[in-house]
Amino acid sequence: MDTLISRAVTDLKHARTAVALTGAGISIESGIPPFRGKGGLWERFDPMEIAHIDAFVADPALVWRVLVKELKEVIDRALPNDGHKGLARMERMGILKTVITQNVDGLHQAAGSTDVIEFHGTFAWQRCTECETRVPTRDVDASVLPPRCICGGILRPDAVLFGEMIPPIALTRSQEESSQCDVMLVVGTSALVQPAAFMPVIAQQSGATVIEINPEPTPLTGRISKFLVAGKAGQIMNEILSEVSSLIQSKKQ
Ligand SMILES: [Zn+2]
Predict the structure, then answer these.
(1) 120 catalytic, yes or no?
(2) Ramachandran region of residue 133, left (φ > 0), alpha (ψ -120 to 50) or beta?
(3) What is the 75 CA–ligand 1 centroid distance (Å)?
(4) Is the CB of residue 97 less than 8 Å from the CB of residue 91?
(5) Strand, helix or coil at 219?
(6) One of 14, 84, 108, 120 is an active-site residue; which one?
(7) Whole-angstrom distance, CA of residue 100 vs CA of residue 103
(8) What contacts 24+ positions apart, CB below 8 Å, involve 222-226?
(9) In this predicted model, what pLDDT tens digit does every residue of 123-155 receive, in sequence order?
(10) What is the DSSP-derived secondary structure letter of residue 194?
(11) Which of 35, 152, 215, 238 is deepest in the core (most CB within 10 A)?
(12) Counts for the chain of helices (H) and strands (E), in that order
């Protein structure tokens, strides 16, 4: 048995409150490319031109044309992978309390997680710029752009666009959960984008054990995180869960 997996399981088993912070890395196995880095959306498009609130206000149809192609079509057919499902299972087992995510794909909820803080809002829902009605992105008819609400208002992503603030409730709750947890799993994020990247720092400074599940070391590794379990989120989560399950089984016998 991988000793780092065993360490993670031991820490989780002893935790009173565990939370997870997730990023783009957890959704790659669901076919959702990250925004940043090689092959990412921001390598091909200037976010200030297609994902800034001013760009949206100036020409929503133009922004929508890119969003539909690059996000709606991808997210409409994406399914949660073992990483999302593993965190949802940990919640059902009473091990994990909350997922704080930087992702906008809605896959944690699709996997069954019920307490998800969406730092950057969600692209799985659109909201009317006039009446605030929310519509699942899957149900949005994108044949005419920009898509409109039944009231006639233009629909926009319920996500945080560049030039907009992180929803204050999401920020406050994330800070609370980070300062109150005793284990934080950092999954699939290089922890470079503020203010989400500060959550592991808050957790560590409040005495929590920060465990990273990432393919490679990040700026947190060895500084903020106690250890890194290197690998793909889905696979590592399966290994952790199988060891947790066998512990629970042996406890029952
Ligand atoms: Zn409306």
Answers:
(1) yes
(2) beta
(3) 23
(4) yes
(5) coil
(6) 120
(7) 9
(8) 224/191, 224/200, 225/186, 225/200, 226/11
(9) 999 999 999 999 999 999 989 999 999 999 999
(10) T
(11) 35
(12) 12, 9
